[in-house]
Design a protein that fits this description.
Elements lengths: L2 E2 L5 E2 L2 E2 L6 E3 L3 E7 L11 E7 L12 H17 L2 H12 L6 H10 L6 E3 L20 E4 L10 E9 L6 E6 L9 E4 L7 E8 L5 E6 L6 E10 L1
Parallel strand pairs: 1-6
Antiparallel strand pairs: 2-3, 4-5, 5-6, 7-14, 8-13, 9-12, 9-14, 10-11, 10-13
Helix pairs in contact: 1-3, 2-3
């Protein structure tokens, strides 16, 4: 195995060593990169890289939060759920011209929603919907979840805190595009002026949209949050 681009070992005119990793004074970063046969790299060789130190401005942005949660769930599934035999299947698939490990292949498919698993959203700090955000007209309305769950999500786990001045006030959920009054779930008040903590599982369409129908009532509390999702 050859180590190439040796000039990237030099910093301030000094050769730092043979295989340099890490950062210096937050000015330069060094890494060893394996060649994969692409972009003029030689598969099996290694390359010494050097580039300006930086911290991505969007490292904790809201838009990436669903994908961070899905990544964590995928790592856990590989480590704790997959058998050695299943991992070997991924290794064999990856070795057939994909220039990656079985683990990398699994993670790629998991992030595309091609691996069946549940993704816990974590310790969420606020509700996704309050009564002021919902259309309370007793008709079916849409809820776009694309900013909450990533592409490939098949169903969501919704929790709700509901309270009203009478019994049997309902909010129902169904997959966007469904029309029959059978395959839906929901939440309801079962005692007047008592907060209930309820949950419902709802299938998403390909655009991560669901439908809800909330009774046209003067709800005291109607808060909803996505607790997690399935791929």
């Amino acid at each position: 195995m050859a180590l190439r681009t040796l000039q990237n070992r030099v910093y301030s005119g000094i050769i730092l060593g043979r295989r340099i990793r890490g950062s210096i004074a937050k000015t330069r970063t060094f890494r060893i990169r394996p060649g994969n046969g692409y972009y003029d790299s030689v598969e099996g060789d290694e390359y010494q890289d050097q580039y300006a130190y930086f911290v991505p401005a969007s490292i904790n942005n809201v838009q990436a939060a669903p994908y961070r949660a899905q990544w964590i769930a995928a790592v856990r599934k590989w480590r704790y759920d997959l058998t050695a035999a299943t991992k070997e299947v991924y290794n064999k698939r990856a070795s057939k011209g994909l220039h990656m490990s079985g683990y990398n292949l699994f993670m790629r498919e998991a992030m595309k929603g091609l691996v069946q698993m549940y993704v816990d959203r974590g310790d969420i700090a606020a509700y996704d919907k309050a009564k002021e955000d919902l259309t309370l007209d007793g008709a079916w309305n849409t809820w776009d979840l694309s900013s909450i769950v990533p592409a490939g999500a098949a169903a969501v786990f919704i929790i709700g805190h509901v309270e009203g001045g009478a019994v049997d006030w309902k909010i129902e959920f169904r997959k966007n595009g469904n029309s029959n009054e059978i395959n839906h779930g929901g939440m309801e008040t079962i005692r007047a002026n008592v907060t209930r903590h309820r949950s419902s599982i709802v299938s998403c369409d390909a655009n991560r949209v669901i439908q809800y129908k909330a009774d046209n009532e003067s709800w005291t509390t109607l808060n909803l949050a996505v607790r997690g999702w399935w791929t």
